[in-house]
């Protein structure tokens, strides 16, 4: 019993340090999922061309602070990205982050196997060349051979 009492202050300290971060990440997750869902709703209501045009617009409805939506075919051809113009219309399956993770292929596998999910990787913030830790939510677009995603930076 005395062993548990000695660990109690350490447990309280760990919880105090972790809980605020978890709450902040949870808020970001909610915002990211909402952006993805709104893009999917636009695909349903306004079609592919109009939605991709909106996704590609850096000042459009799918860019909020550090959050932005991207769209790819299920073959990983990038169709929509508001900041990375050079990779549009490219097959990005083989692009790797600084840890060697083929992030777009990971996205595709998650969507293919689960319909939606979260993936962590490294990606530079808009306007930066330095990779940062990022976590993205990806989801299949119903009745399209596409998936969309958005993410948030962890650091």
* Helix count, DSSP H or I runs of 4 or more residues: 2
Question: Which stretches are low in confidence, meaning pLDDT under 50 for 5 or more residues running?
Answer: 1-5, 7-21
> C-alpha Rg, in Å?
18 Å
> What is the average per-residue confidence, as pLDDT, rounded to a whole number?
87
Residues in helix, % = 40-55%
Structure report:
This protein has two helices and six strands. With 155 residues, the protein is of the alpha+beta class. Strands 1, 2, 3, 4, 5 and 6 form a six-stranded antiparallel sheet that branches. The N terminus is likely disordered. It is 43% helix and 26% strand.
Could you outline the blueprint of secondary structure elements for this entry?
Layout: H1 2-56, E1 63-64, E2 67-73, E3 78-80, H2 103-114, E4 116-124, E5 131-141, E6 146-153
Antiparallel strand pairs: 1-2, 2-3, 2-6, 4-5, 5-6
TL;DR of this structure?
This protein is 43% helix and 26% strand. It has 155 residues and is α+β, with helices and mostly antiparallel strands.
What key attributes describe this structure?
single chain, 155 residues, alpha+beta
């Amino acid at each position: 019993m005395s062993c548990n009492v000695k660990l109690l202050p350490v447990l309280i300290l760990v919880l105090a340090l972790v809980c605020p971060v978890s709450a902040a990440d949870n808020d970001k997750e909610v915002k990211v999922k909402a952006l993805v869902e709104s893009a999917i709703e636009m695909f349903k209501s306004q079609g592919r061309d109009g939605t991709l045009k909106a996704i590609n617009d850096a000042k459009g409805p799918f860019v909020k602070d550090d959050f932005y939506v991207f769209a790819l075919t299920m073959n990983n051809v990038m169709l929509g990205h508001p900041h990375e113009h050079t990779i549009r219309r490219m097959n990005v399956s083989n692009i790797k982050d600084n840890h060697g993770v083929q992030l777009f292929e990971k996205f595709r596998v998650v969507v293919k196997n689960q319909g939606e999910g979260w993936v962590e990787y490294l990606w530079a913030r808009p306007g930066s060349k330095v990779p940062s830790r990022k976590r993205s939510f990806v989801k299949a677009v119903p009745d399209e051979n596409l998936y969309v995603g958005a993410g948030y930076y962890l650091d």
